[in-house]
Amino acid sequence: MSAEATSPGAPIRRRGRPRIDLRRLGRVALLGPVSRDRLPDAIGHVAEAHRAHHPDADLSILHRAYVLAESSHRGQTRKSGEPYITHPLAVTLILAQLGAETTTLTASLLHDTVEDTDVTLDQVREQFGKEVCYLVDGVTKLEKVDYGAAAEPETFRKMLVATGDDVRVMSIKLADRLHNMRTLGVMRPEKQARIAKVTRDVLIPLAERLGVQALKIELEDLVFAILHPEEYERTRALIAAATARTDGSGATPQDPLAAIAENVTTVLREAGIPAEVLIRPRHFVSVHRVGVKRGELRGTDFGRLLVLVGEDADCYAVLGELHTCFTPVISEFKDFIAAPKFNLYQSLHTAVVGEDGAVAEVLIRTHRMHKVAEAGVIALGNPYAADGGAGPQTTEPADGERADPTRPGWLSRLLAWQQSAPDPDTFWTTLRADLAQDREITVFRTDGGTLGLPAGASCVDAAYAQYGVEAHTCIGARVNGRLATLGTVLSDGDTVQLLLAEDAASGPSPDWLDHARTPAARIAITGWLDTHPEDTRSPHGVRPAQARPEQPPQSHTRPGPRPPEPLVGPAATPDGAANAVVDRPDATVRLAGCCTPAPPDAVTGFVVRGGAVTVHRLECAAVTRMRSVGRMPVGVSWGDDIECRVTLVAESFGRPRLLADLTEAIATADVAIISATVEPPSEQRVRHTYTLQLPDPAALPALMRAMRDVPGVYDVSRARRPVTVA
Fold first, then answer.
1. Looking at 48, 101, 112, 115, which residue is catalytic?
2. Which residue among 4, 58, 116, 374 is the active-site one?
3. Is 499:490 a contact under the CB 8 Å cutoff?
4. Does 116 qualify as catalytic in the annotation?
5. Please, where are the H alpha helices in 11-85?
6. CB-based contact 66:128 (threshold 8 Å)
7. Helix 229-244 with 284-294: angle, nearest 10 deg
8. What would the pLDDT profile of 564-613 be if each residue is shown by its tens digit?
9. Which contiguous run of DSSP H or E holds residue 197?
10. Which residues make Cβ contacts (< 8 Å) with residue 368, sequence separation at least 6?
11. Exposed, middle or buried: residue 298 (CB in 10 Å: 0-12, 13-18, 19+)?
């Protein structure tokens, strides 16, 4: 494994136990120094690694599986020239080191027999039971598909369905890919690059999401070496130079990380906190990323400190001691124990400054957390056994599928939307985009439930995550008790209440696609819009209806058309127009209600019936209309009086005391209200129109912000009326 994945998933390792080099075993040592006419009993390595995690495991089934696999593959060789049995052995050894239970290891030994030999699934079922047969069949189905570019979408759709039925299928597939990547050098460079790209785009993100960091980071290094050989060599040279300054284990005073580790050990020992402090070298890709981020690597950038303790409470005790006895880098602190990552990862992250100013990153976790951080779902054992042990399941799933208690929320969502993907290309593009989102948030529903969403998700995504296609009727939301638009981006820990429409026939707006981040939301919205092209009339929503919180939609008569907007504003108010000076002596001046100009807007004027001059903002649509019919503009400038009159429209969801709160916000800004109009509520939305006298036009932006901050208000704008040519 890579340097960072050394001894993956070993929560309590006896001192002195040798660590097995999986790369060496996978390529050479698996054959051992034996005669040419027989294969070695390499199952001994698997048994030793398995017993380290499961001391009471029954190894007889592994020996029987090895005998069947070895005899079935006898005479077959890999492209490297090695006997083929070395491949299933290496895959099984990888999984054994990660702590996989006996059933998974048995299936791993047999994972190529049904595909490449005369062994049948019936034979596997008869000799090893239904559970092993189920896993072998799942892996075999993945092996039967082509990895060519045209077949990739359907290949990975099948892979995801198999993973959803049993996450152990993907565990075996990931270990299989790791060993194949280790021995990829025998293939043509173009084929190496193609396999590496697929591994990078799909399998590595899946390993990350399943929490199998030990596999993920070595796959990253192998892909890095194939796709970016020059950067890989530079990074390798940097790591080699850093290692040369120590004895290879970080034990000499020349290593600043070792000095900090020694001080941390002393601090924790004096505090009476039992802990193991280790130096955890970074792997190649990690070192490369740090170098790109910082430009120049520091001595402590080649590794991190790992502090292992017994209990959760000890993690926080360690954190307190470190932040007390060292100078902490507060911006580096993250608590993934209280809020675990979506892939089961738990740990405290911090950084401290040593005596010489060196900064060391520190990971704090329990032994159990460390095992799960390395092995992810593999560390959870057999999720289907009644006792959670390593034994096989005895009950056949009635419908060929099963409810996986270890299935992460992201996988359930992914399995749901992939069924709705209209074509393979859409599925493939959406899958890669979905897997590229490497961080999740948790938001709370008002009924006590939770929703797992990718970082950057909006209320639109929350609506479809909670209600599915019923979210088509969503018209708004409350986030942490305050009304919010559907485009509001959610943060980890937010409480969300979705407001659905009474009219079940209402539907989403094309604008929703601008706010949707999850594939489920985007596919559902696109599907609705494609089947309702006649209903995409308005950029602000389609056929909305009376809102109600947290209830399933019901059929109701659609509300009638919105009443015409009242003509409000300073269109004929001499006081408001007194500050506008036009190049036409003795003409009556009016400020246009369609654009409500005010200092310091750039303005122009036009003569209308009766000889009056109407003043418009230059960007007003009426200006273009006037010029198109041959009207000549009149020059307009603002006078010395800084007071001005302006009309604002506030759009909001209806609620008690809204008018009072808006009026208070305006009065607090020392702005006089000349007139106010409130339209009757329509679709749970209310429009307030205010004509205001401002002592200084410079105060207008702050006033509009204050009005937008009133709970329930989602937009404040300058008043506009339909443009007419007088």
1. 115
2. 116
3. no
4. yes
5. 22-24, 43-53, 60-73
6. no
7. 90
8. 333 333 333 334 766 788 888 778 888 887 777 888 788 899 888 777 88
9. helix 189-198
10. 11
11. middle
